[in-house]
Each structure stands twice: as structure tokens, then as C-alpha cells.
Request: fold
Amino acid sequence: MPLENVKKIMLVLSGKGGVGKSSITTQLALTLSLQGHSVGVLDIDLTGPSIPRFFGIEEQKVRQAPGGWIPVPVHDKQSLPARGSTSTSSSQHNGDAATNPPTEVGSLSCMSLGFILANRSDAVIWRGPKKTAMVRQFLTDVLWPPLDYLLIDTPPGTSDEHISLLETLLKSTSGPAAPPNQLAGAVVVTTPQAISISDVKKELNFCKKTGIRVLGVVENMAGFVCPNCSECTYVFSKGGGQVMAEEFGVPFLGSVPIDPAFVVLVEEGVRPVYPEGTVVAGKTAATVEKLDGEASKEGLLVDKYRDCSLAPLFDGIVANVVEGISKSG
Amino acid sequence: MAPLMEEPTQVDLDAPLKSAPKLVAPEPEHCPGPESTQAGVADSCAGCPNQKICASAPKGPDPDIPLITDRLSSVRHKILVLSGKGGVGKSTFSTLLSFAFASNPSLTIGLMDTDICGPSIPKMFGVEDETIHVSGEGWEPVWVQDNLGVMSVQFMLPNRDDAVIWRGAKKNGLIKKFLSEVRWGDTDLLVVDTPPGTSDEHLSVNSFLKTSGVDGAVLVCTPQEVALLDVRKEIDFCRKAKIPILGLVENMSGFVCPGCRYESQIFRASTGGGRKLAEDEGIPFLGSVPLDPRIGQACDYGESFLDAFPESPACAAIKRVVRRVGQEMGIKGDILGEDGS
Reply:
């Protein structure tokens, strides 16, 4: 049973589509890796897999080994130079480099149906039983390396994929071979507007019914900071996530604003750069010198992500989640 | 079990439907579908506990299909709103499309929400707490306006926040009911809102509506490649299922800061956005709708954005798109029943 290698399994759920489940999964994975944990990401969104795109590994294919699939590696365990000391750093950064030790990052690998399709625009037109079989296969036939955390990204809704996922997981994690409390729980993602909240409430009720612990609610797309005038606009309203978390008595992990630089990082691989004085979630974003052309695209995704304004925010969210998990044993 | 590397078989979209037999065991992985003509006789059926049941079930077409066709014979046009990606604004667009059509008093509009696990339509119309009335003639849709009726699974839930934890087969059953039991009556346009993806709901809607004829599908996307990737899959689905594509709408394109009027591309079109995708795929581009926070607010409060902010640029953009949809469907004259522009 390949999941024996995995210490903790975390689900990322949302009743609503397009709220940023995959985006949040990506950032949770990168942050866990930055904190030194080894991480795996399993994408069970079969008809719309986004994880390969988010990690910039769309061209990769899954390799087959005796007994199963080998997940696609994003990066290996390694140490990254301290922030600011990369590439063209000027003298002003040298002081920081001496005080900041290099960051030890854990390994990161992914599995998604996107790696198996012959053509990226092919539609996967499957009815339920076929999806169920695929989800089961993803849980039983992927040869994960030893992992501290396995994040499972899900499609929107509460249907075939979710039922199959939980059936299989609950069975395997209650087995004698599984590490204790292997299925840590679920992070539920929402956006602030009422339409999204009403669907996500259904997902929380789903967790209640199936006995999955809710590790917390993340409110995504809360506010957009205009890059021209630094004014924050609540594009999709605000505060809904917190109210919902209180209503259901689950932890509220935080609000994540829209950061176009993160979208550009994912879409084009450009290291995030912010104009002087940009304040995101109460913190002033670090200003790194703007690099031209290809130089801005150099480096590992996890390295570039450290310059993203959302990185400190996720550092806090992940610390919260990890603490919550460790408290329960 | 050594996993297979090649892409497994997909559903046969052209297979004629027959009624599904009662099964004794869950459908296995390579099941051709209990409704298909291959049921019980395909190679993959060997050893399945359902084989006998499937093989001995009556082979004729699904008796409910003529029922659906008969029910929908009084519905003149049917449009699907599709997108491979979630949260791009399918339901918002379906809502705006219905409100816009319904602003023409000479039309009667129906809107069917086939998103069973995450129904948003009732909230967007402010009719969340309504229930369905059943009369001798069938289920009555919930009427939002005199000429705008809505049907959704939300109307059937005892509690507003109940999760609908259903597998595909059960969802298909409900969609069939929506088409065969609901008294749509004399309706000019039926808009069908769908969940994200290319799975049970989409296949069912397609096969149930095949004989009554669908005018086509409107695809909704947002500008960034992560979303376009999934919309490409939906275009592939439409082609395979032979659903005509009326065109592509790009939603959330550009956000004008209310403070300084500076336009930012929140979801940057790094690969050319919807327009480029439509060109590449050779489908009509119906237009872009800017990201206006007031659209979201109007949906949250269940009112018509078009009535609340008729002067806004987003409203003008939406009306342009709706007119294009009307044109693509081959409806003569202004679908909105307004003069000029």
C-alpha cells in the first residue's frame, strides 16, 4: 500500500469551482516545502486538472515502474541561498545574506491525470464509475517517496470523486499498517461572496457527514490591491469566509488577497516584483530589483515564490495548520 | 495491479439510449453504461454480476426520451451554458442572459440549473427559499418574473445548506425528471446552466436533448491560461458530442479600479485570452465582460444587475454579448426588444 510512506494526508476542498483550490494547494505545497517538509500533491480533478500548469510541469509525463506510477518531481530536497542573494544582488543585500541562513526545502512531487493525457486539450468524458476507478488507482498505484504531507486537490462538488476518495481513504487509513491519524483533515477554500459561501457551506456539511475534520477555512480572492494607486478593492465582497467559519465552529485560517504577480508567476514563471510601497495584508511587500527578460524567469518555482507577497501570509497559514494537526496527535 | 499508461476508453457519445435496468452491483470500471446498446454484451461485461440483467433488459430506446421530446416540443430554443472550469461565471452569465432575454416582454424564458452539487441559480434570483409546486400537469418551475421560470435542485432541499452527496447515476435521474416532469409550457428560450467539467451531467443533458434539438452552447471562460486549458477540453467535448457552439464569452476581463480608473488585468491573458482561443478554434467570439464588483453584489442580493446599473460599461458589454447570442441562434430582429444600438 503506497500510502504507507505518507505521514499526513490533507484534502483541499470546496463546493464551488474556480475559488482557487488548485492555487491554494500549490501555495500550501510550496510553503510546506519551504518549511523543510517533503510534500506530494495528488490532483483528482479528472475533467479539469490544473496542478500540472500551476507547477509549470505540463510537458512532463508519468513514468511507470513495476507496481505503479512514479509521480512527477518538481524539485528535490536541497538548500536555497538566502533571499535577496540570488543572481544580480547588489551590495545592499549582502548584509541580509550574512544574517539569513540558506533555506532548506523539502522535496516536492505531483501526480495528476494531466500527465497521462496524450494531448493537453483532450476532453476526458467519463461517467462516474470510470472516475471512481481512476481515483482508486491514484490512491493505490502511485509510488510516493517518503512524504511528510500529501495534499489532495479535488474538483468542485460533493459527488463521485469525493465519495470514492473518502471511501478509499477512510478504509486505508483505518488499516493496521497506516500511521496513526494519517488522514489529518481538510482545508476548505471559499471566496468571500455569498454565492460562493452558500456552496461551500454544503461542503462543510459534507465534511460533517463523513466525519472529516476541517482544519480550517481559507478565504481566497479577498480584495485586490490596485497596482497603480495601491487602493484595495473588495472585488468579490469581503468577510464572508470568517463569518462562515464562526457559524460552523471551525478555525478561520486567513484571507488571501488577489495578487496578480502570483498569477504571472504561475502563468509565465516571472519572479514577482512589486512597486515601492505595496502593502498586502498589512505587510509591506519586499521590493526586489526588477530583472529584465529571461533573468526574471530563472530559478526554481519555490525560490521565486519566496518573493511573492503571499508567501509570508501562507507561512502563517501553514504554521497554523501544522500546529492544529500536531495537537491532535 | 500494474496501471495502464494509455488513456482509458471514453464514453460512446453517439450510442442510442435505452432505459437503464435495475442493477444488483455497482457499475464496474469498464462498464459501457447500462443504458447503452452494448450493455451486457460488450467484452468488458464478462464476469460482471449485472451482465444478465443488462443483457435481458429491453433493447428499445429509452421510453422516457419521447416523453422529454414531447414535453419540450413547446420550447422553441434551447441553449446550454458550458465551461470546463469552475467559477468563471457560468451561473452569473446564465442569470444575466435570462434577465436580459426576459427584459423583452414578448418572450418567455426558462432556466434549468443542472449543477446538482453546487446550485447557485436560486440565490442569484433571490428565490432560495421557494419550493416546487406539483400539479396534475407536472412540476411547476419557480417564477421569478411573469416571463422567467427557474428550476433547480435547491428548491427540493429541506435545509438550505444541505450537501447533495450523490453519485453520477442519481444526478442523471434528477436531470431526466427536470426535463420530463417540469411543466415548461409555452417557452421561447430554455437556458441550461451546467456544472464545471465534462461528466455525467453534461452527457445526460446531451443525450436527453438530442432528439428535441439544442440550438447550441455558449462557452464561458476567463482570460488566464489555467482557465482556458479547461475550456479547450469543453470545446473538444462539444465537438465529440456534436453540440453546435454558438460562441465564447470572456468574463472577468479587466478590472477598473474605482479609485483611480486604472484598468488592471487581474487574470492576465498571457496566451491571448478568450479572443485568441476562439480564433484558434474557429468559433465565434461573442465579446468580453469586464470584472465589475457590482455584478457579484447584485447576484448576492438576487437582483438583476442589468436593471440596477443600466448605465455601467459592464451592462453595455453584457447586452452586446446577449445580442450576439441571439444573432448566432438565427433569431431575427433585436432579441432584447429594444430599439437601436
Summary: Chain B has one domain: 64-329. Chain B has a mean pLDDT of 88.
